[in-house]
Amino acid sequence: MTEWFHVGKIVNTHGINGEVRVISETDFADERFQKGAKLYVGDAKKNSFEPLVVNTHRRHKQFDLLSFNDHPSINDVERFKGLSLYVAKEQLSELEEDAYYYHEIIGADVYTDTGKHLGKIKEILSPGANDVWVVKTGSKDLLLPVISDVVKKVDSAEKRIVVHVIPGLIDDED
């Protein structure tokens, strides 16, 4: 059985020429959404997927706008609203050392280099120069900058991350 990885959600149509607005949830939007890329639209719970080939991709505000081959009109894509976009596991490429897919990081347990459990990573933000991992701590979420001074070890197989707490990172730390 194919293993599927979520790469975005179609939230609306855009114009009348078959474009859809996508909230990207992929590490590599330019690669995933490039012309000719194969995506699958559907519902993972129902294991129902329809293949699509990207015709165009562009950024507009906070959205990725996509159109698909053989879907030239709003009428062709209206039914995709609210559905998710996926790639099959076989479509994932090998990453360079110390690079990780979002799905390998989200859900990982975060520990300090002194052994204290901080929580689990619930989300990844990409605001600029480096990613920021959002850690659910049980109280206030902790924002971890993904920089070498902070992230010391990532074990994606064990879903365990070790971090060094730098001054100012955690409110109650001195």
Computed structural class: mainly beta
CATH superfamily of the largest domain: RimM
CATH architecture type of the largest domain: Beta Barrel
Roughly how much helix do the residues carry, as a percent range?
under 10%
**Main sheet specs:** 6 strands, antiparallel, barrel
CATH fold topology of the largest domain: Elongation Factor Tu (Ef-tu), domain 3
Strand content: 35-45%
- CATH class descriptor name of the largest domain: Mainly Beta
Query: What coarse outline follows from CA principal-axis ratios?
Result: elongated
Amino-to-carboxy terminus distance: 50 Å
Strand order of the largest sheet: 1-2-5-4-3-6
Brief overview:
This protein has 3 helices and 12 strands.
How would you describe this protein?
The chain has 174 residues and is mainly beta. The mean pLDDT is 88. A hairpin with a 5-residue loop joins strand 9 and strand 10. The chain folds into two domains: 4-90, Beta Barrel (Elongation Factor Tu (Ef-tu), domain 3); 102-163, SH3 type barrels. It has helices at 29-32, 74-77, 102-105; strands at 4-14, 19-24, 38-43, 48-60, 63-68, 84-88, 109-112, 117-125, 132-136, 142-145, 151-155, 160-163. The protein has three helices and twelve strands. The strands form two sheets. It has a six-stranded antiparallel beta barrel.
Q: What are its keywords?
A:
174 residues, mainly beta, Elongation Factor Tu (Ef-tu), domain 3, SH3 type barrels, 2 domains, 3 helices
Helix and strand layout, with pairings?
Layout lengths: L3 E11 L4 E6 L4 H4 L5 E6 L4 E13 L2 E6 L5 H4 L6 E5 L13 H4 L3 E4 L4 E9 L6 E5 L5 E4 L5 E5 L4 E4 L11
Parallel strand pairs: 7-12
Antiparallel strand pairs: 1-2, 1-6, 2-5, 3-4, 3-6, 4-5, 7-8, 8-9, 9-10, 11-12
